[in-house]
Amino acid sequence: MSLRSLERVIREGDVVLEVVDSRAPERFRCPEIENLARRLGKPIVLCLNKCDLVPKDVVEQWKRFLRKHFDEVVFTSARDHHGTIILRRAIRKVSRGKRPVKVSVVGYPNVGKSSIINALKGRRSSPVSSIPGYTRKEMELDAKGGIRVLDTPGVFPQREDKDAYLRGTIDPDKLKDPVKGAIEVIREVKDKMPGALRERYQIDENLDPIEFLELLGRKRGRFTKGGEVDLERVAKELIREFHVGKIRYYILPGDEFANRRILP
């Protein structure tokens, strides 16, 4: 989706609902969208989704850390239907009584925008998938409580780099170099969440990443016809498991990653 199309959607809405992944909120923030919304005078509600994958005290820390930069900050687990009522309340609050209130839902692919929309509606209407970029077109949908939702596809360039690997904005099956992506994931988890890889795979995480993937492939029986470990297949599996939360991982507000961004 182009920035021009995105600006049209944001102009049309009364409130911008930015959805991010609670495991690493700063990585999933969209400064281009935030700046555009502020320039257009639109209030922003930040939704920390997938909070079921993060300890409650860590999510609370993030909420305090980010509160001063947004009109409202709400944490949710769309999968568990947690926080939906509070989210509706926050949207109505920043809309200053407008009815119906149009909400532009934005965020990187795979942060759970469609699940949030379905939770707001109270029934399934927006297609849900763990495949990044599954939402293909803009949609306007009725939700509960006098809310109308403007859903948008993933709105950012899909460069294949470290951030794309860690955000999960590209389907692992479409990666040009999934092994490189898996190496980045292994290094990130080892650095930020020591012990999580060993906990998940029962493999020494201090091994070289390629050795780690080789051993994981042997454990799972992932071999090519020639009898070699199918590294690409194993790499894609590991990346997917990281994205869906099967590998324990989250970042604290005081982490160096959080502090290296210049916040507005």
Description of the structure:
It contains twelve helices and six strands. The chain is an alpha/beta fold and 264 residues long. It folds into two domains: 3-156, 3-Layer(aba) Sandwich (Rossmann fold), CATH 3.40.50.300; 162-243, Conserved Hypothetical Protein Ylqf, Chain: A, domain 2 (Orthogonal Bundle). The protein has a six-stranded mixed β-sheet with strand order 3-2-1-4-6-5, sandwiched between helices. Helix 8 (178-192) crosses helix 11 and helix 10 (209-220) crosses helix 11 (231-243). The longest helix has 15 residues, at 178-192. Mean pLDDT is 88; it is low at 124-136 and 258-264.
Largest sheet: 6 strands, mixed
CATH superfamily of the largest domain: P-loop containing nucleotide triphosphate hydrolases
Discrete helix count: 12
Helix/sheet category: alpha/beta
Instruction: From the alpha carbons, calculate the radius of gyration and give it in angstroms.
Output: 19 Å
Determine the fraction of residues in helical runs and give it as a percent range. Answer: 40-55%
Supply the number of structural domains: 2
The low-confidence parts are 124-136, 258-264
The amount of beta strand, in percent, is: 5-15%
CATH architecture field of the largest domain: 3-Layer(aba) Sandwich
Kindly report how far apart the N and C termini lie.
Answer: 24 Å
CATH class of the largest domain: Alpha Beta
Q: From the 3D structure, determine the CATH topology of the largest domain.
A: Rossmann fold
The counted number of beta strands is 6
Indicate the overall shape.
Answer: elongated
Helix/strand order: HEHHEHEHEHEEHHHHHH
Strand order of the largest sheet: 3-2-1-4-6-5
Q: What value does the average pLDDT take?
A: 88
